[in-house]
Amino acid sequence: MGTQSGGDYFPHRNRIMSGVSLGVLVVEGDLKSGAIITARWAADQNREVFAVPGSIFSPQSRGTNDLIQQGAKLVQTIDDVLEELNLTMVPNQMEIQELIPATDTESDLLRHISKEPIHIDEVCRQSGHSITTVSSVLAMMELKGLIKQIGPMAFVRAREAGTSYRPRAGGGV
């Protein structure tokens, strides 16, 4: 705290950044740029090094092209990075995580909500939770896309895990 920034600190910062990363992707940089220095630190720390190739006529591509020549993984699309780091399933895992109730109260309330509309008062009676708890938890579940409010204080399940909804032909949903 209170330390002024200075150019001498960048190599140290770059070493730390590469050390806490799974890999380093360099999009552009000359041979002695900070991005290339970070990539070299990453290689020394046994991290993956990725580089986007560039024009052989551009000084800003000399570093990335050199990295590729030295064994960095050539990147043409984001999928190249995701596949190499075994992260291709992350979007699916995040979607599935959204479908999983986050708390015991959410799980309990979700057991009482089906495809048939149910009034909030009935959810309170069936679950034994207070109106304050049910109201706030249902609001959060609605924001997460687990349930939908379809009328005055009436709720239905929005979707099940593995279910996808597509518009029907003719523009209806």
CATH architecture of the largest domain: 3-Layer(aba) Sandwich
| Rg measurement, Å | 26 Å
Q: How much is the average pLDDT?
A: 84
Whole-number total of structural domains:
2
Q: In terms of structural class, how would the helical and strand content be classed?
A: alpha/beta
Strand content: 5-15%
Percent helix, as a range, is: 40-55%
The coarse silhouette is elongated
The fold-level CATH name of the largest domain is Rossmann fold
Q: What is the CA-CA span between the terminal residues? A: 56 Å
SSE pattern, N- to C-terminal: HEHEHEHHHEHHEE
Number of strands: 6
How would you sum up this structure, described in words?
This protein is of the alpha/beta class and 173 residues long. It folds into 2 domains: 78 residues, Rossmann fold (3-Layer(aba) Sandwich), CATH 3.40.50; 62 residues, Orthogonal Bundle (Arc Repressor Mutant, subunit A), CATH 1.10.10. Helix content is 44%, strand content 12%. The chain is built from 8 helices and 6 strands; from the N terminus they run H-E-H-E-H-E-H-H-H-E-H-H-E-E. The strands form 2 sheets. The protein has a 3-stranded parallel sheet, sandwiched between helices. Strands 4-6-5 form a 3-stranded antiparallel sheet. The protein is elongated. The termini are far apart. 18% of the residues are buried. The C terminus is likely disordered.
